[in-house]
Automatic annotation (TrEMBL):
<dbReference type="GO" id="GO:0046677">
    <property type="term" value="P:response to antibiotic"/>
</dbReference>
<dbReference type="InterPro" id="IPR027417">
    <property type="entry name" value="P-loop_NTPase"/>
</dbReference>
<keyword id="KW-0547">Nucleotide-binding</keyword>
<dbReference type="InterPro" id="IPR003439">
    <property type="entry name" value="ABC_transporter-like_ATP-bd"/>
</dbReference>
<dbReference type="GO" id="GO:0016887">
    <property type="term" value="F:ATP hydrolysis activity"/>
</dbReference>
<dbReference type="InterPro" id="IPR003593">
    <property type="entry name" value="AAA+_ATPase"/>
</dbReference>
<dbReference type="GO" id="GO:0005886">
    <property type="term" value="C:plasma membrane"/>
</dbReference>
<keyword id="KW-0067">ATP-binding</keyword>
<protein>
    <submittedName>
        <fullName>ABC transporter ATP-binding protein</fullName>
    </submittedName>
</protein>
<dbReference type="InterPro" id="IPR050763">
    <property type="entry name" value="ABC_transporter_ATP-binding"/>
</dbReference>
<dbReference type="Pfam" id="PF00005">
    <property type="entry name" value="ABC_tran"/>
</dbReference>
<dbReference type="GO" id="GO:0005524">
    <property type="term" value="F:ATP binding"/>
</dbReference>
<feature type="domain" description="ABC transporter">
    <location>
        <begin position="4"/>
        <end position="222"/>
    </location>
</feature>
<keyword id="KW-0046">Antibiotic resistance</keyword>
<keyword id="KW-0813">Transport</keyword>
């Protein structure tokens, strides 16, 4: 069942079209990723889903209602979340807890226990980030919107945060995750919408996005005897053949390996130094967004 439905969403800032005809659904319990270069409209879209920004066009429903009517069911961690400099971590947690009938405390799990007395203004960027995640989850939301969840975290803290997100999902929370990190999307997301210039350029599972790239699989080998490459080119699974010295590199679709090895077996040719590579979500992203840098934050 869809817990979030976005239909034909449109938003301008003056002459600038930030979001244009964006539609998608998020199923209950899903981790839905939103990827795209800077300025592609990701934050504007999630702000509309959270009920924090009014769209010019289209509709958003969360749990079948307008987001503004179900605010307590939506937890939001946005890029710009700022707190007063002097507020202590413990004070922020109890203040936010007081807004909700059944608050949930994720602070220990997010590594904040040793920093409860620290003032917000003294926290490192990573700790501020973790506090903002704890505050987004404090109201036991049905839907959590996390914008650039792990930006500013070191690799270990990023992995720890991923484990927390997996726990949050196991607790039944649906998650919308805006990210610049392909590894994060690949690890966490069930489906990913790739935004480009205010529109969704592609929406699929991470592996589905990869398989859209032409020549997403590459087979490299050195044939035991000279091989007529036109035989390889004639295979329907093959999109390209090149040679580097003795090595032959064949690109093509998912079933490429079987097609190539069957041909070699028929010709009684042994494939030496056989290697198979798959393009990464990074490669797919670059192709789908026209080469914009993904991790330029
Ligand atoms: N309040 C605003 N006033 C004017 N223009 C805005 C405003 N907020 C965003 N924009 C513009 O709208 C476009 C989309 O911005 P948005 O923040 O939604 O993109 P984004 O994909 O989240 O980018 P980023 O990855 O940099 O956060 C950008 O061109 C941005 O400059």
């Amino acid at each position: 069942m869809a817990i979030i439905e976005v239909r034909d969403l449109g938003k301008r800032y003056g002459p600038k079209i930030a979001v244009d005809a964006v539609s998608f659904e998020v199923a209950e319990g899903e981790i839905f990723g939103i990827l795209g270069p800077n300025g592609a409209g990701k934050t504007t879209t999630v702000e509309c889903v959270a009920g924090l920004r009014k769209a010019d066009r289209g509709s958003v429903s969360v749990l079948g209602r307008a987001p503004a009517d179900v605010r307590s069911a939506i937890g939001v961690q946005l890029q710009s979340s700022e707190l007063p400099e002097r507020i202590r971590v413990s004070e922020a947690l109890s203040l936010f807890s007081s807004f909700y009938p059944t608050p949930a405390d994720w602070s220990a799990r997010l590594g904040l226990s040793a920093h409860l007395k620290a003032e917000f203004g003294q926290l490192s960027g990573g700790l501020k980030q973790r506090l903002s995640i704890a505050l987004a989850l404090i109201g036991s939301p049905r839907v959590a919107i996390l914008d650039e969840l792990t930006t500013g975290l070191d690799p270990q803290a990023r992995r720890d945060t991923w484990s927390v997100i997996e726990e949050v999902r196991s607790a039944g929370v649906t998650i919308v995750l805006v990210t610049h990190f392909m590894e994060e999307a690949e690890r966490l997301c069930d489906r990913v919408a790739v935004f480009r210039d205010g529109r969704i350029a592609a929406l699929d599972t991470p592996s589905g996005l990869v398989s859209r790239v032409d020549g997403s699989t590459r087979v490299r080998f050195v044939p035991s005897v000279a091989l007529d490459v036109t035989l390889l080119e004639a295979l329907p699974e093959v999109t390209g053949v090149s040679s580097v010295g003795e090595q032959i590199v064949v690109s093509g679709s998912e079933n490429l390996v079987h097609a190539v090895t069957s041909l070699l077996a028929r010709k009684q040719i042994v494939a030496r130094q056989l290697r198979v590579d798959q393009v990464s979500l990074d490669d797919a992203y670059v192709e789908l967004t026209g080469g914009s840098g993904a991790e330029d934050h």
